[in-house]
Amino acid sequence: PPPPPLCGAVLLEGCFLGEYLGLLPLLLAVLFGDPGGSGTPVRAGAGAGMWLWEEQGGLLGPFSFILLLLLLVTRSPFNACLFTGSLYLLLRLFSFEPLPSRRALQVLKPRDRVSAIAHRGGSHDAPENTLAAIRQAAKNGATGVELDLEFTSDGIPILMHDNTVDRTTDGTGRLCDLTFEQIRKLNPAANHRLRNDFPDEKIPTLREAVAECLNHNLTIFFDVKGHANKATDALKKMYMEFPQLYNNSMVCSFLPEVIYKMRQTDQNVVTALTHRPWSLSHTGDGKPRYDAFWKQSVFVVLDVLLDWSLHNILWYLCGISAFLIQKDFVSPNYLKKWSAKGIQVVGWTVNTFDEKSYYESYLGSSYVTDSMLEDCAPHF
Q1: At residue 51, does pLDDT exceed 70?
Q2: How far apart are the first and last CA of the chain?
């Protein structure tokens, strides 16, 4: 028998999955017309389902999935269309337009070639997140540096990866409990393998680090771990004081909230989302984070949802220019999928000669590394 008419009041109580799939292209056509922005109308009929899933560069795939899921759960085309359409309209209403791709390329490939970005300033070659690391990275041929932004208890923006000073300095305690005056007395080279080569280092302020990078013509990847409001305010001040940052820096974060807030604060800043698959359920070296099976399982599910959201929705919402992802998940096909969306991919942390050659010669993709000089283990 012919399928029931496409009407919001019709409940398809007896439909099979195949009939839902047959209706899917028509429902999407009613909702979106051409949501992918390709200029090609949504096609119905034979093969339409496959075409929907193969469409590149837009939102059609993710919203096809959402609509299909809602159809199966609610068994109501009206409710499914209403909810999916509302999500789509909200996304279009509150999303940011991405910057022109040439702006991202100015940061990622400023010399028209693959960039090598020194992770934390090159944490294997010099004490991480220090002015010495920045100088050493420039000396060793890095195109740019990735620097971690944190704050002291009195609100001074500084360079620090952890929320405590224990791992990298001769002190102990949480950053939120230490003033800048106390922080300044610590030695950030105390626990580094080359500590004797850097006897007089201090933990730098954000401004000191920016000035040093610009002095050495290095691009900057500002890595923000949290404090979205404070971080965006501090970075906005840097962009106002040093306007050249608009063309040679990027703000990146694992937290979409930070990137969205940065785009709200200044839409001219190049931004990127950072991601490591399974980061909620596993540590950087692959070990489960939780002993309890139920808790570990919950975070595995959350990892799947986060990964799907980043790759399908959040990149569009934030209007990012680049996607930073753990090196083992980068492939030619992965690069192609992001390129179709106008987004550059940066792999991290690429620490061996063979991996660097693969990125430079085969993938043609920029990368983040702990050392510009030799192979080394990753610094999590």
Answers
A1: no
A2: 60
Token pair belonging to 245: 């940052």
Q: Residue 293: which residues within 8 A CB-CB, separation 6 or more?
A: none
Statement: residue 110 has pLDDT above 80: yes
Cα–Cα distance measured from residue 106 to residue 264, given in angstroms and rounded to the nearest whole number: 22
DSSP 132: H
* Nearby residues of 113 by Cβ (< 8 Å), 6 or more positions away: none
Residue 82, both tokens: 């209403």
What's the Cα-to-Cα distance from 26 to each of 14, 31, 84, 266, 296, rounded to whole Å? 19, 9, 14, 39, 40
Instruction: Quote the Cα angle for 347-352-354, to 5°.
Output: 90
pLDDT above 50 (res 18): no
For 101-369, CATH gives 3.20.20.190
Q: What angle do CA 199, 204, 208 make, to 5 degrees?
A: 120
Angle at 201 between CA 197 and CA 202, to 5 degrees: 165
Does 349 sit behind a cis peptide bond, omega within 30 degrees of 0 on the bond before it?
A: yes
Percent of the chain whose pLDDT exceeds 90: 74
Q: Taking the CB of residue 226, how many other CB atoms lie within 10 A of it?
A: 15
Summarize pLDDT for 183-230 with one digit per residue, the tens. 999 999 999 999 999 999 999 999 999 999 999 999 999 999 999 999
Question: How many C-beta atoms lie closer than 10 Å to residue 38's C-beta?
Answer: 12
Q: Is it the case that residue 360 has pLDDT exceeding 80?
A: yes
Give me the mean pLDDT over the 61-76 stretch: 89
Residue 312 in this model has a pLDDT that exceeds 50:
yes
The CA dihedral of 221, 213, 133, 106, to the nearest 10 degrees, is 40
**CA angle (313 as vertex; 80, 40 as ends), nearest 5:** 75
Count how many residues are written for the chain. Answer: 380
Domains of the chain, by residue range, sit at 17-94, 101-369
